[in-house]
Amino acid sequence: MSPLKTNLPKYGPCFSVMDFFTFTETMQTNFYPENPVPSFELSDLLFIINAPLDYYPPMDNKRATLYFDQPNCLRALPENHYQVRCNQQLGTHDFIRWAEQGIGLIRVAVTHPGLTGNDFTDLIQLLKACESRNLVLEIIPYEDSLEVPWESLKYFRFRNLLAVLMADNKLLTLQMYADLGNAIEEINFYANHIKVLATHHMQSHPVVMLLGELEA
């Protein structure tokens, strides 16, 4: 193999998803068109949906493993393993949809620089701040594109939080981002770590993704 192929960096982080409902694994990343080398086994982040409680994948080169679970699921979490739970018990179809949507939005949030220069380190910093390794993920739609969804945001109090505003590029503005940031900081006044990001994403309405560790 030529030095060009071995020395080329990846465009961005590699994400793998293991789904224990369908027993399938998928990966998403970018590659150079002049050097389309596959990246399987080089995943930086592994998402696992509905894993058995005794399942622990080999870490290899992974930075972290995130288990997507129902709220009543409790599992032991070794170092660099994190649990992401939905806020309420869901039926199987709705749980799969929540997990797939959440994973998709996380990938968008850390690979599209958007208005705020987002990148993979924003997620890693959040995970390192969460000492319990237990997180919740909530996706809150904007009912009105210009109004911060205060009532939905006030339902949660976070110790550590990554919040990402996502909207069509015709709707997303710095004012929307500033308004959301002010609201989140006011609601989570005693938080230890808060990062608010904004990026473009094709949505019929703007949404804010909340990923974080709740107050005790």
Set down the secondary structure blueprint.
Blueprint: H1 3-7, E1 15-19, E2 24-28, E3 45-49, E4 64-69, E5 81-85, H2 92-111, H3 120-129, E6 134-141, H4 150-153, E7 158-167, H5 174-187, E8 193-200, E9 207-214
Helix pairs in contact: 2-3
Give a concise summary.
This protein is an alpha/beta fold and 216 residues long. It contains 5 helices and 9 strands. The longest helix is centred in the middle third of the chain and has 20 residues, at 92-111.
Explain what you see.
Helix 2 crosses helix 3. The protein has one domain. Helix 5 links the parallel strand 7 and strand 8. It starts with a helix and ends with a strand. It is α/β, with parallel strands linked by helices.
Task: Provide key terms for this protein.
216 residues; 5 helices; nine-stranded mixed beta sheet; 9 strands; globular; alpha/beta
Question: What is the strand tally?
Answer: 9
Count helical runs: 5
What Rg do the Cα atoms give? 18 Å
Give the number of domains. Answer: 1
Which residue ranges are poorly predicted, with pLDDT under 50 across at least 5 consecutive positions?
Answer: 1-10
Helix content: 10-25%
- Calculate the mean pLDDT score and round it: 87
- Envelope shape: globular
The main β sheet shows up as: 9 strands, mixed
Strand order of the largest sheet: 2-1-3-4-5-6-9-7-8
